[in-house]
Structures are given as C-alpha cells and as structure tokens.
C-alpha cells in the first residue's frame, strides 16, 4: 500500500501545501471537506493493489457518481493530481496518460474515437470547459485556457486558447500550478 500513499500524499500536498502522516491523509479523505481530494484518495487506493482495494473501488464508484467525475481506475495519472473548481463534471478516457503536477478544471472532457489516447505532460494546467479530442499531446508546462477545444499538439511552455485551440503565448508558462510536487516519484 506504500506506493498508493506516495501518490495520495503528493495529491494532498497539491491541495494543501502540507505534507501529512498517513493517518491525516486518511482522516481528511474520510472526514474532510475537500471533495476533490477525497475523490483522488479513493481513486488512488482503487488503482493500486492493497488490502483496502475492494472498499476503495466501491468508494470510487460512489464518489464518481456523486461528484460527476468519471476517471477509470486504470488511468495512468502521475504524482500531484489536482481537480479544481467547486463542481466537477470531469470525464477522462481511461487510455489517457497524465503526467505529474497536472491541474484539471470542471467540465473537462478528454475523449477518443480511435483508441489513441491524449498524452498530457508535467505541470500542465487545463482550464474549465475544455475538450481534448483523440491523440492530442500536451507538452510540459502548457496552459490551456477555458473553453478550448484541442485537436492537435500543444508545445512545451505555451498557452493555448480557442476553438480550435491555438498557441497565443510562450510567456509565464505553468503559472497556475500551485504547490508542485518535486520531492517524490
């Protein structure tokens, strides 16, 4: 269960800026008010083999329905995953690969029709109401503006907006990634 808690601790750090004991990680997931952290906690436990996996799968399913976050348990997500926004409605295709220190916002849809997943690099911020279609690659330190529709590669250190998304800047990339995890993984 150690590996699962490395991921859980990294997610917790992204939400709070604090490192915590295993007991605090569990307590905040069960009793805490941070819905997104609670979802991430159970997603991580359901993803890795551990003695609590059966309970974790059940909780992941319950919270997926309650918060409208649909991320299959086998989705590859790196350390320090952060779901932002007061409401969620997040759908991520299970073949998507997500790097470390990635922020996703509400009303995100990452899909594919051709079994070619999106690949999202490290330290990427994805704003609200974004759609990512098919085999898009978002390179490290990219920022995706609200309402963008991505149909092609987004280069490293860029900001992209619009429908379809176009790069508008290479200034100040990754500025929305708070509490990045660089001490684990």
Instruction: Report the β-strand fraction as a percent range.
Output: 15-25%
CATH architecture field of the largest domain? 3 Solenoid
Structural class: alpha/beta
Number of strands: 15
Unreliably modeled segments: none
Give the termini distance in whole angstroms.
Answer: 15 Å
Task: Describe the fold and architecture.
There is one protein chain. With 185 residues, the protein is of the alpha/beta class. The chain folds into two domains: 2-67, no CATH class; 76-169, Hexapeptide repeat proteins (UDP N-Acetylglucosamine Acyltransferase, domain 1, 3 Solenoid), CATH 2.160.10. It has four helices and 15 strands. The chain has helices at 2-16, 22-31, 35-47, 53-67, and strands at residues 69-70, 76-77, 82-83, 90-92, 97-98, 103-104, 109-111, 119-120, 125-126, 131-133, 137-138, 143-144, 149-150, 159-161, 166-169. Strands 3-6-9-12-14-15 form a six-stranded mixed sheet. Strands 1-4-7-10-13 form a five-stranded parallel sheet. Helix 2 packs across helix 3 (35-47). The radius of gyration is 16 Å and the shape is globular. The two termini are 15 Å apart. The model has no long low-confidence stretch (mean pLDDT 92).
């Amino acid at each position: 269960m150690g590996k699962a808690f490395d991921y859980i601790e990294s997610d917790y750090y992204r939400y709070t800026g604090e490192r915590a004991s295993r007991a605090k990680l569990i307590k905040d997931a069960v009793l805490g008010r941070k819905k997104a952290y609670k979802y991430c906690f159970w997603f991580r436990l359901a993803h890795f083999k551990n003695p609590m996996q059966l309970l974790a799968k059940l909780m992941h399913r319950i919270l997926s329905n309650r918060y409208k976050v649909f991320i299959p348990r086998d989705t590859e997500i790196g350390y320090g995953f952060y779901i932002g926004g007061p409401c969620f409605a997040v759908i991520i295709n299970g073949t998507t690969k997500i790097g470390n220190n990635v922020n996703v916002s509400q009303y995100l849809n990452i899909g594919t029709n051709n079994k070619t997943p999106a690949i999202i690099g490290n330290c990427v911020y994805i704003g609200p109401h974004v759609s990512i279609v098919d085999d898009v690659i978002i390179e490290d330190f990219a920022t995706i503006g609200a309402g963008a529709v991505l149909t092609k590669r987004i280069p490293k250190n860029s900001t992209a907006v619009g429908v379809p998304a176009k790069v508008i800047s290479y200034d100040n990339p990754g500025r929305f990634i708070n509490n990045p995890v660089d001490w684990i993984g």
